[in-house]
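note to self: dont lose this again. the chain is below, predicted strucutre after it. 258 aa total, dont forget to put it in the shared folder this time
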Amino acid sequence: MQDIAAVIFDLWQTLILDTRENGMTRSKLRLSGTRDILESVDLDYSISELQKAYDKCSIHCREIREHQEDISFVQQVDIFIGFIDPNLRDQLPDQAVKQIRETYCNAFFSHPPLPHPNSVEVLEAIQNMDLKLGMISNTGMTPGYAFREFLSQHNMLNYFDTLTFSDEVSVSKPSKKIFDSTLHELNVSPQEAVHIGDHPVTDVNGAKSAGLHTIWIEGFYNTDELDIPSIKADINVKDLKDVPSAITQLRTLSQRAR
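---
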């Protein structure tokens, strides 16, 4: 058994914490902002019409991710515009399209999630173990470049040796490909890495299938309600702050096994 050389984090509900209500507020901002932009070029669409297009876009993008793939942020916004009206994208000035993209993205910063109160402390503790640090995140409605800016604002970005965002690589967790590409960037084998996250399918089972060790942060999902194979992380923890000690435990076990 090889020693741990790298730690890879999930983002949502791991290093940052969000609520459903916050997400709904961001959605409303995207819709109201889009309506205002369309009105500025003399196009009249109701919030109801935009909501229907937004919901269709969400379903379409979710179906793509269910196949362990993803699309770019630009493609996602173009799909949203296309669901408003199939001919709308060709009618809109480039500046209006750019503004809709900005509105779609900037909703994240208007109502952002909160960094976990122990995020920086945990990242620093792991860095002090002389371990490489990576991140793999499915991006949803927010592009990877926005997450980089957010991480920088909260003094987390510089801890990472590499960051992999699904909208930038066209692959989403739990695909083995997204784990493999991150391991390649870190120059470590799967047996030398541990993945940490909250989701039983994308973070635990996905990482285990790719050959990584796993630490599962419990409490965000009721696994009895999920139609998935049994979840067996190497270590379960109750909170992010417990991760450094769990990594130490894993390293001790790997050293004993050699």
